[in-house]
Every structure is written in structure tokens, then in C-alpha cells.
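Page 47, continued from p. 46.
Same chain as before, 399 aa.
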Amino acid sequence: MLVAGAAASFWGAVFSVKRWVDHYRSDQAVDDFRVYYYTARLGIEQGWNQIYNQDALRAVMARHFTGQLAVIDGGHTFPNPPPLAWMIAPLTVLPFGPAYAIWSLVGLASVVVAWAIAAPFSGLARVALLLTAVAIWPVHYSLIFGQPTPEVIALVAAAWWFLERDRVALAGIALALATGLKPQDVILVPVALLLTGRARVFAWWAGGCLVLGLIFFASLGVQGVVDFWDTTVVVESYPGHKIMTLASLFGPGLPAYALEAGSAALALYGAWRHRSRLKLVIALGLLGSVMSAVHAHESDYCMVLLAAWLVLATPTSAAARFWLLPGVLAVQTMAIGLPLPTLLWEIVWLVLLVAERPLREAENRNTEGQVGAGDQAGFHSEHTGQGAIQRPRGGEVEV
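Result:
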């Protein structure tokens, strides 16, 4: 069965890569990287305080494209915080085509880095997880459109790795950088860490965000910040940004906001309930961030990929694990414009994760094997609280 699953993942990954190569050959002027690239060019040529000036961006696009490719509106503009444009700025020394190819390869490398850091298992099973990641639609969509979500999951995976080793400052900085790229994808992760007693990493995250915010303000100036706010208002009024949110279930308005807020609250409650299990805390923070977002596209569901790896790496019920299998199929339906299967699937998975029984020494059947792994990973006082496993020579380990 493992061999069959790995073979299916392999051919899915081959199809995904081939489709990206074909897309690159036939349509290099792709959303969203097209806008990112020329926004960075605008910042370099006219000043970073101009990157949210919609008239200036329209003029830049009109010099290079015609028709729909030159359009700047709520669905086609630069909505991200400035760090994304700063990251892409070095690539503007290259023509658009090679810059797009390099950025997509950086995205693919980021997926591999996140897998190397966070994916569980060994041998063929672990390789199958990577092949599945490359094959699924959210990753494929991210690479084709040049979205920064692969970089975000690599940063969050790094934050988890640092926390496991009690490198709190580096963990907080990594989370701050991820927030600076796509805030809606990770915003509940630091909140979940704070609620579960990990205040030091929250403080480092907040400090990192403050520094980024000061640089942000210094580069934009007052008018640039006003332009950023105006752009955000226009972007959030665009209906296309709601398709992959829970608003698709009942339409925009109060019911959608209530469902999104309820998802966030439930995810945070689940994180607190399982506060001794760092992997589950971060997984619930990621899942809650995506489910509560008022602005989401297919690429944002890369966060669920990292959440799945973290869940598979910690003792959880068979139901929570096996529910990932229909999840792989559900996210593929995004490719044909069907958000409903994914939205329903993630609701069930959130409930399953929250309903997990808190880990207790008497209930954990995997204690002996996991403690040895925990010793090697260097777990220390960060992993304390309800359900922590006591080691014979003292201390606690999160599994």
C-alpha cells in the first residue's frame, strides 16, 4: 500500500512539475508574480513610498503590457506588506522571465526545506510526503503564480524547529518574517503560543513585527501608509478574494464573520487544550489562521500542508490522521473551481484535532519511543503543562 501511494504521489508530482514547465513556456506574464515584480521595479525606480500608489503602478504596467495584463484593480494589484517587494527587488536586475523562473524555484526549494525540517517518518514514506506536497494543488498554484506561501511555511517550520531546541529568539524572528509576508496565513500561531504559556517567543515575534513595522513606515512615509490602507480597502472589497474563505458557505456578511471568528476561537481553544504538545499547538494555529481568514486563495492552503506534517509527527487518533486522506482529494478540487469540499473537510479536521484527548502519561502508547527522540531533539522547559511526559531523570518532553 505504501508503494502504491508513493507511486501515485510520484506521478502526481511529475504532472505538477510538467504543467508548471508548460505554463512557463507558454505564459510567463503570470499573475501574481507579474504584479510583484513590477511593484518592486516601481519601488526601485520611483521610491518605495510609491508601491501602493495605484496610478503609478498602472503607469508602470501600461509600459510593459496591454489589455488584461496591464489592469490594476482590486483583484490585480500589490496587496502584501512591503517585505515581499523587498525580497523580489534583487530579481529585478533580470528580465521578467528568468526572474519568474528563479522565484518559482526558490518556492520549490522552500517546500523542500519545510519538508526536511518538519515532515515525519523515514525512507519511502517520508519521500512520499514530499512528492504529495509537490503534487497537490495549493503548492502547484503557489509555484505557478509566484505566491510567497512556500517561503511562509519554510519560516514557520523553522520557527517550530528553533522552539524545539529552546532557541526562542530565532523562533520569534522567523514567525515575524512569515507574518511580514502574509499575515493572514500565520496570525494565530503566535497567539496560540502565547495562550499556551510560551510568552517569550510571542514577545520576540511582537518585537520583530514592531521592527518590520518601523521599517515599513520609514520606507512608505505618511502618504504611502495611507495608500497602503486605501489599497487594502479596495482589495478586500473584491469578491474573488472570498472564494476560498468560509464566506463561500453562507455568503459574505455577519454569518461568515461569525463562522470565521468561531473557527479562530475553536482553534485557539484546541491549542490551549493541547498546550503541552508544541506540534499540535502550531498546527492548530496554522489551521485556525487559514479558516478565519477573510482573504484567501488556493495557495494559502499550503499552511494546512505544514499543519498535516506536524500532526503526523505527534501521537494523534487514527481519525485525525486518516482524515488527511480525503483532504488530499479535497484540495485537488480547487483546481476545477470547487471550494466546498476543502472548506467542509477543514471544519471536520479542526473538530477532530480539538477533540483529541489531552496527552497523559497513562494514555500515551508511544511514550518510550518518543522520549528517546525527544532527548535527541533537546526538549527543555518550553514543553510544560498539562499532559507533559515526565522523564525518569527529570524534565519534560513534548511528543
